[in-house]
What does this fold into?
Amino acid sequence: MAMKILVVGGGGREHAIAEALSRNGNCELYAVMGKKNPGIAKLCKKYLINSETDINAAAEFAYNNSIEYAVIGPEAPLEAGISDLLEEKGIACIGPSRMAARLETDKAFCRNMMEKHGVAGCPLYRVFHDAEEAALFIRSYDGDLAVKPIGLTGGKGVKIMGEHFDAEGAIEYITEIGGDVVLEERLIGEEFTLMAFVDGTHIVPMPLVQDHKRAFAGDVGPNTGGMGSYTMPDHMMPFVTEEDYDKALAIMEDVVASLRSEDVIYRGMLYGQFMNTSEGPKVIEFNARFGDPEAMNLLTLLSSDLCDIVRKIAEGRLSQSDVMFENKATVCKYLVPEGYPDSPNPGDLITIKDAGEAFSYYANVTEEDNNLYTQTSRTLAFVGMADTLTEAEKIAEEAAASVEGNIRYRTDIGTQEVLDKRIAHMKEIRQ
It folds into this structure.
């Protein structure tokens, strides 16, 4: 019998998940998505267009179609408790419970938990629920701070003093968002992402990835959901030592164990975003799901059967031997509507002339009469995969450059020039 799997979410990340699952010919796919993703729709036997946070509708759809497993893409349905509800209905969920997902959905909870259990890599921080108290702290603090709204922000709400605004700008921002905020020491270094599959006990890491949040080339402009990302053939980063890597993985293992000690079982994907500092890796944040765009790099590289990984996570018996990746480099470049993220221009026709060898993943795009049109968020992504970073970047760049329409993308992602700057910066701060 076919293995029935539900994918919740309709973005580029979920297209990559669906694509990876579909490589198993014995997997029958279903989806719940807020907007129709044409890439996902083509892979599914049946799909429901409905709000992803309407967990009752999603659960009813899953139950009526005899779904056995569900893979949750975005964070919002996790916060709404979709995993808890599906599990109650006997559907194994690859996505943490509402309580476990607080690692992402409640930044104050995350920091307090790390401090309580002595988990390494926690920056100096203070939690505030009053804008005036936060303002007093900022004015008395000698240095720059990261300003993090406590709830979900879609990757766009965190702002840094010294980059996005000065102290008075930070105070104004905190007042605008209502005063519920975590203030943290500004971390200086190089960011990297370590993601892992977690079955409640066992943690199986994936290759390291570096994401590019800033809207424009040269890492300038506002933060976005992510403009692209890259991986290296050895699954490491040249500015991350083996010792750095081991520390980062140990932090993630300690976080899962700390939750388990409080009878909170973490099952699904765990995303650790780290800043590699002069003192080693510090935790910027955790996400309770695959990153977007990083999922597109990693799932393109995945050579193991994702359906088998899903089943073993659900059964609590995942091992390192179940998860294998190609020893190749990948570069992911996101195309976005002109004006993104502040004032995106939707409804424009785009034409893909020649994707070449690149893997294509649709995100926030509509299809009418075989034509593609932009919407208000990231449109689609191309992933190049090759033996070297230079070759992978060339594949992704040629595909992205072939697209005609009112869109743009970052041409610098995955280039050797950008990587060399990262390496030089890391050497400089560790001298």
Notes: The longest strand covers residues 267-277. The first helix runs from residue 12 to 22. The chain has a mean pLDDT of 95. The CA atoms of residues 332 and 425 lie 23 Å apart.
